[in-house]
Amino acid sequence: MGQDSIPPAPGYRTYGGYLREKFGGHRVFKVIVDAGFTCPNRDGKKGYGGCTYCNVDSFTPALPRSLDAIRAQIEQGIVRARENYDAEKFIIYFQPNTNTYAPLATLRALFDEALSICPEDVVGLAVGTRPDCLDPEKIALLESYTRHLAVDLEMGMESIYDETLSQLNRGCTHQDLVTVLDQLAHSPLNLCVHTVFGFPGETREMMLAYAAEINRFPQIAFVKLHHLHIVAGSIMAVQYQRQPFPLFSLDEYTDFLCAFLPLLRPDIVIQRLFGISDWDLLIAPNWGLKKVRIQTHITREIARRGIIQGSAQSCSIKREGKMNKTTDSPG
User: Fold this and answer.
1) Mean pLDDT across the stretch 213-220?
2) What is the DSSP string of 127-178?
3) 70 CB-near residues (< 8 Å, 6+ apart)
4) Angle ∠(81,84,90) on CA atoms, nearest 5
5) β-strands 28-33, 230-231: how paired?
6) Burial level of 140, CB count in 10 A (0-12/13-18/19+)?
7) 12, 65, 155, 237: most buried, per Cβ within 10 A?
């Protein structure tokens, strides 16, 4: 993972551009760590089976899955990134499952170990988790690393609608996320939220409304935008095979993004425009293209249409005279 290998589109704030600007032009890549966490929605604390769309292996590279020791994962990940992508600096990324779902002392030991490896070239820490697995002590721990590093805290928004979240067996509500975002209003952490577009029952208008909900939290610095894809080993795969439901084609999803991006606050950095999965796990939609080809297709269409992130929102602000920051949560 890391910077895209194609030139960034001028119409939106790319993650690659952000990294180059923040870290003095160095090539910065993420090194994914699988620390062996589970999830409260799998082990029975919140539920069993996990979110219906989830199979952790579908978005975790083979290298961290094949190695148990954190040190080996990081050392080999750094070597691979240097050799294959000319990487110079690294963000240690605790990605699979829920990476704050452990006692505070355990988390501190894991993060400290990871950050002790190649410290001269590690410039950041990224931690993916659920909003219902954070508390003031864990937040303070993550904030303590910001004295020396950029620290990203990633949380799943997925949908803003509680009816959808319930159908997905998500195990938490949209208000759970809102509560944590409010607690982090003045935090030095870089906050990132994930969204998934295309859940059954959500219309185009409902999905476009995600932008207004994201916009009302100025503490959100990054977003990861995904289209729904069905992966083997998930509950949704069984549901889809029994009764298929509509999924985005590549052109449909590109068209949706061209409508969504102008609604999104222009300062937000977009870390990802679409989701990917290993082809051996992907059931649908299979667009028949590799990641770079998909990225090229989307960004060329964004450029061709002259899409500018935040342009519709900026027009709305000018008409109203100010940004409305008291919008009620749609969820």
Assistant:
1) 98
2) EEE-GGG--HHHHHHHHHGGGTSEEEEEEEEE-S-HHHHHHTT-SS-HHHHH
3) 33, 35, 110, 113, 114
4) 20
5) unpaired
6) exposed
7) 155
Strand partners, 43: 48
pLDDT tens for each residue of 261-307: 999 999 999 999 999 888 889 999 999 999 999 999 999 999 999 99
Residue 306 burial (CB < 10 Å; 0-12/13-18/19+)? exposed
Mean pLDDT of the chain: 89
| CA atoms within 13 Å, Cβ hemisphere of 163 | 6
* pTM of the predicted structure, to 2 decimals: 0.87
pLDDT, residue 62, reads 55
Residue 328 lies in a domain: no
Q: What angle do CA 169, 1, 240 make, to 5 degrees?
A: 30
Domain count within the chain: 1
First and final C-alpha spacing in the chain: 32
Q: How many CA atoms lie within 13 A of 42 on its CB side?
A: 16
* Segment (H or E) for 278: none
- Please write the tens of the pLDDT for every residue from 53-94: 888 664 555 555 455 789 999 999 999 999 999 999 999 999
Do 232 and 283 meet the contact criterion of CB atoms below 8 Å apart? yes
| 221 contacts 277 by C-beta, under 8 angstroms | no
* Residue 178's CATH number: 3.20.20.70
Does residue 233 lie in a domain region? Answer: yes
9 part of a folded domain:
no
CB atoms inside a 10 Å sphere around CB 321: 6
